[in-house]
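For homework, think about our next protein:
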Amino acid sequence: MPNGILRGMNGCASQNPLRNAAYIGDSREDAHGLPVFTRLAEALAGGYSHLSIGPGVYHEKLTVSHDDVVLCGEDPGNTIITFDDAHGTLGVDGKPLGTGGSATVTISGARFTAHGITFANGFDYLAHARHHTDDPARLSGLQAVALRTVEGSDCAHFTNCHFTGYQDTLFINSGRHYFKDCTVTGNIDFIFGAGTAVFEDCAIISRDRQDAVENGFIVAPSTKGYQPFGMLFLHCRLERELLCMAAHSVWLGRPWHPAGDPEAVPSACFLSCTMDDHIRKEGWTSMHSRTKEGLCATWYPWQSRFYESDTQGPGGAQASATRTILSPEDASRWNRDTMLAPWNVLMDQSTQ
């Protein structure tokens, strides 16, 4: 079980950081008179909305359904929430959980805030991926989500958080999101969904699949056509986990059309980002879909809204038919305030 001592909000601003807070740890004694819990689920079920989480590994599967919940850890290196479900894991009904059901943490409440926490999915992707497709020991469905947002979620705010997994790490599927100074790690479509999101000053780290040609895909947006923006990566660093990863083997992304959804017009922009040489020169690639009726389709990058501007480094965009470079005027429309309005994330940060 995790352990530690009572700490404040560890960087999470709050009008009353102690009066409406709960410390997560082994000890149930607290000099400040605050209730102490050993499990986050217990604290959330008790109605506590501001939780100061002590160092430890919390092996829990959580759903956060209340509005205005704040989770504040000491540091993402030692404050970890993890579970190990995958798409193919069987639920209590004997059926696979599916990609969404695999999530370690699911957010359905508005104005969720997290600071200093690692959200992980501990499913052993590498062990299962090594099995041959005909091997009965191989689990079908290796998608394993660390955190997802669903209907009801909006204005989700993360600072200094890590999101760790392999395939489908971060499922941002509803509302607006702001990520500042965060790290996202994975290999296949590891940032995906229909939500609007700004990633600012974040590290986007690709994991090795040991494939010299197609070593992974970073984003897979499914943005609806009526949404003006999808995902913005601003001043981010696109890095590889291992130096031995093959050069030009990772795609920036591909267009996701869930169940062949024709209303999706996926949207993503990399603005003033630095890219290592694992990024493919072509940048973007196609993606297949299948409707519930079994009809298959292929969706291409030029049918989507995939853009770049001022991308630097060996993987940065050069003049190419496959990588659309925005003009300075068009690039200026991709900014935090415009994308997240009418939510003023800086005001939100100062009043929590």
